[in-house]
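Fig. S4 source data, part A: sequence.
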Amino acid sequence: MNIPIAYEDDWLLVVDKPAGLLTIPTPKGELRTLSSILNEEAKKRGVDYRFHPCHRLDRETSGLIIYAKGKAIQKKMMDEFKKHKIKKIYFAFLQGIINQDNGQIKQPIDGVSAVTRFRVLERKKNFTVVEVVPLTGRKNQIRLHFKSIGHPLVGETKFAFRRDYALKAKRLCLHAKSLEFTHPVTQKTVHIEAKIAGDLEEFLRRHHN
């Protein structure tokens, strides 16, 4: 499977994950995940390290994900995530029309504080295109926060009833489009951008009004 590489150096690999692929297996023990594909490739090339994910993306979410070449670098990157030092920007389609141009959702998740900022990029006939910056990293944060303000993500089936919305999509319309962080070894600022996923671009073309 051709996984596009967005960035690589001696310590890190950032790939553009296609939608529909798990990062790591669930308790069901799936054999084919992004991690298994990358590590099979590495084995074929005979490298002496394994790829370890530094964070997760949901199966249905596409976009940028950071892998470490070895456990030591993974730990350093995960510490950066814990300290909220890694800036992530997502691209999402929300059900309905959001009237405010910018907003911030502060809603605890499982009793822990969680904050998501968003900016409206475009308003379509029955959905809104937004840029999303999660300031905390709770599980399912973006999905839960937009559901909480009555604008779940287009294609959401876990936290909203599909039948409640006329607009349907083949998958969750969420894409991790940019990452910025201080490199744990070189201490340089790394900024990586990914193009919008092809299927989301196609969705926009079909719903151009």
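Fig. S4 source data, part B ends here. The first helix runs from residue 34 to 45.
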